[in-house]
Specification:
mainly alpha; about 65% helix; about 0% strand
Length: about 150
């Protein structure tokens, strides 16, 4: 039984649903413009050419993500691919108790953004979860007092 029965390439699946949706997302998102780091690299190369006053080989300028991909040999997943990968993990971990995909898709992108922020700022997950737990305890306690 397919996890994603409404996928347009469901009849021809030879791989996981993630691979199918990743292909669709790549085609859909492929036309989007350059990221900010690419523009910064372009400006740096323009400045170097202007400062040298002569023709020169322009250096390759990589953002941090591209640099890490190059040295690690790993590829960063696209946002849609990450959502489906997260859903597959959610189903594996929770089994019968897993949210249906329609409910999961409501909170999954926010969770991915939050985890990206945690990763970008090198936050300690133990402290983060402790603070979230305390926040929810205070919030539920405050609502109990209001009643």
């Amino acid at each position: 039984m397919a996890i994603f029965p409404h996928c347009p390439c469901a009849p021809s699946w030879n791989a996981s649903p993630t691979a199918c949706w990743s292909t669709i997302a790549t085609k859909w998102i492929g036309g989007l413009g350059a990221a900010g780091a690419d523009r910064a690299g372009l400006h740096l190369r323009k400045y170097l050419a202007k400062a040298s006053g002569t023709a020169l080989w322009s250096p390759e300028v990589l953002d941090m993500g591209a640099f890490l991909q190059r040295i690690s040999g790993l590829q960063q997943g696209g946002s849609i691919e990450l959502v489906f990968t997260l859903y597959e993990a959610h189903v594996q971990l929770n089994g019968e108790r897993a949210d249906p995909f329609a409910e999961f898709i409501e909170w999954a992108p926010v969770t991915l953004r939050d985890m990206s922020e945690v990763d970008a700022h090198l936050l300690d997950l133990g402290t983060l979860y402790r603070d979230l737990r305390e926040y929810h305890e205070l919030r539920s306690g405050a609502s109990a007092w209001a009643n």
